[in-house]
């Protein structure tokens, strides 16, 4: 039943997406056929409207809408956002070319000193979209500081949408029709509401439920553990395996924030622990954070959790590097709940000193029916555990021999590892609904 409900919710979102794409063209055909003249203008208008809808959808996708994230998961939403944004670029280019072919003014449209306000807005939107594309490509090659890149990306994305809306509105020939005008107004209000929720309401909510730093400590594998406690409230409830965006500063409106998985038990939400790999400027700065510093948490998010899987015979957790954090949260929660099912944890690391939070893993063996295996790419002399990467042969040695299809499997780590292992599990007959994944990518 839960699977059917989940499929129904995804189908609802998908149908809503198609409706957003198709509505403007349908309205033109039904209620405003006189709004365009001839097939060339219809093609120009159609490509522009679909591009506008795609860009609006891309904007909304990254607004952390809880029901959307619950249906698809953060990693899927991120991929959809990228695909939708990429699809919008050639449509905008096609729209511009068709307008130039149809409009007798030709290239004089781009003479900003003498053209119309609608054309100026179109130029601003197109240039901002081009800048977004260039920045995205440069980021893959240059790896700029994430916080600065993100600030510029958000500002440009907002400029793209606002200017595109003004372009349509100031043209008048579409917006003057009551039905079309109402549709554009509703879409603008939806985006505005989503933006206010994302950039105003969520920070205000985080301020009311702030935490303070209790302890910052070094951990194996060049990681840092951040332990916080609730400040003036009972804690933010979360499900084991979920993550949150974390801000450290004097205000919850600080722009810089980063997503970290919660590593602590869900049974004590007033105290949270995050284990963070020192990969960038922000995570390096964590080492200097002093106890008592205010922390603001936006969350929880994510759908990779053991909650709701009471009928499962047990769980197999497969983690690479810092991907151990959601596994620890789930295992600690299971231990606090007195779970007696059989569980297996497989941890992949470069070397023995890179195994993150190994003491905590070992302590969990005493509280759970838990089998733990470590796979090292660079094992020390005399190492008796697994060697090399987690692959199909290793899975054959560690997967449950009895009714493996009755267990649930959780994968977290580098994207390549997660994709490969998920494929290996499916090759061994594990149903896709039993495989739960989380990848460490920026969102």
Report on this model:
This protein is α/β, with parallel strands linked by helices. The chain folds into three domains: 2-205; 210-301, Translation factors (Elongation Factor Tu (Ef-tu), domain 3, Beta Barrel), CATH 2.40.30.10; 314-439, 3-Layer(aba) Sandwich (Rossmann fold). Helices cover 49% and strands 18% of the residues. The protein is built from twelve helices and twelve strands. It has helices spanning 2-31, 38-61, 66-72, 74-102, 117-142, 146-171, 178-208, 281-285, 324-336, 358-365, 392-398, 415-427, and strands spanning 211-219, 223-230, 243-248, 258-261, 271-277, 294-301, 314-320, 342-349, 369-376, 386-387, 408-413, 435-439. The strands form two sheets. The chain has a six-stranded antiparallel β-sheet with strand order 4-3-6-1-2-5. Helix 2 runs antiparallel to helix 6 (146-171). The longest helix has 31 residues, at 178-208. The two termini are 31 Å apart. The model has no long low-confidence stretch (mean pLDDT 86).
Supply database-style keywords.
single chain, 12 strands, 443 residues, six-stranded antiparallel β-sheet, 12 helices, alpha/beta, Rossmann fold, 49% helix, Elongation Factor Tu (Ef-tu), domain 3, six-stranded parallel β-sheet
Secondary structure blueprint with pairings:
Elements (H helix, E strand, L loop, with lengths): L1 H30 L6 H24 L4 H7 L1 H29 L14 H26 L3 H26 L6 H31 L2 E9 L3 E8 L12 E6 L9 E4 L9 E7 L3 H5 L8 E8 L12 E7 L3 H13 L5 E8 L8 H8 L3 E8 L9 E2 L4 H7 L9 E6 L1 H13 L7 E5 L4
Parallel strand pairs: 7-8, 7-11, 8-9, 9-10, 11-12
Antiparallel strand pairs: 1-2, 1-6, 2-5, 3-4, 3-6
Helix pairs in contact: 1-2, 2-4, 2-6, 3-4, 5-6
């Amino acid at each position: 039943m839960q699977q059917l409900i989940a499929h129904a919710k995804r189908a609802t979102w998908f149908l809503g997406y198609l409706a957003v794409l198709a509505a403007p063209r349908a309205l033109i055909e039904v209620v405003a056929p006189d709004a365009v003249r001839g097939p060339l203008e219809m093609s120009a208008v159609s490509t522009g409207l679909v591009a506008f809808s795609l860009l609006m959808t891309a904007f909304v996708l990254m607004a952390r809408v809880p029901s959307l994230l619950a249906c698809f998961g953060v990693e899927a939403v991120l991929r959809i956002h990228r695909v939708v944004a990429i699809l919008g670029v050639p449509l905008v280019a096609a729209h511009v070319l068709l307008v130039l072919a149809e409009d007798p003014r030709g290239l004089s449209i781009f003479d900003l000193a003498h053209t119309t306000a609608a054309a100026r807005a179109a130029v601003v939107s197109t240039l901002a979209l081009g800048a977004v594309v260039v920045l995205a490509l440069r980021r893959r090659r240059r790896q700029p500081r994430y916080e600065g890149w993100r600030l510029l990306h958000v500002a440009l994305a907002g400029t793209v949408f606002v200017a595109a809306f003004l372009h349509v509105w100031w043209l008048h020939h579409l917006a003057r029709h009551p039905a079309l005008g109402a549709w554009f107004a509703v879409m603008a209000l939806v985006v505005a509401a989503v933006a206010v929720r994302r950039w105003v309401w969520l920070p205000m909510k985080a301020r009311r439920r702030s935490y303070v730093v209790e302890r910052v400590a070094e951990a194996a594998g060049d990681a840092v553990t951040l332990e916080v406690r609730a400040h003036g409230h009972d804690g933010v409830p979360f499900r084991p395996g979920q993550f949150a965006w974390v801000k450290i500063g004097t205000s919850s409106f600080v722009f810089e924030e980063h997503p970290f998985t919660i590593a602590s038990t869900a049974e004590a939400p007033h105290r949270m622990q995050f284990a963070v790999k020192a990969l960038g400027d922000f995570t390096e700065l964590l080492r200097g954070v002093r106890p008592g510093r205010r922390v603001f948490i936006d969350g929880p998010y994510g759908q990779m959790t053991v909650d709701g899987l009471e009928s499962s015979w047990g769980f197999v957790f497969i983690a690479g590097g810092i991907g151990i954090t959601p596994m620890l949260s789930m295992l600690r929660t299971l231990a606090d709940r007195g779970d007696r099912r059989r569980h297996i944890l497989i941890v992949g690391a470069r070397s023995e000193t890179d195994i993150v939070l190994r003491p905590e893993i070992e302590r969990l063996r005493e509280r759970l029916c838990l089998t733990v295996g470590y796979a090292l790419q660079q094992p020390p002399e005399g190492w008796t555990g697994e060697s090399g990467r987690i692959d199909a042969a290793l899975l054959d040695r560690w997967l449950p021999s009895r009714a493996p299809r009755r267990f649930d499997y959780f994968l977290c780590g580098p994207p390549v590892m997660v994709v490969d292992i998920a494929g290996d599990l499916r090759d061994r007959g594990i149903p896709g609904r039993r495989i739960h994944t989380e990848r460490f990518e920026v969102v």
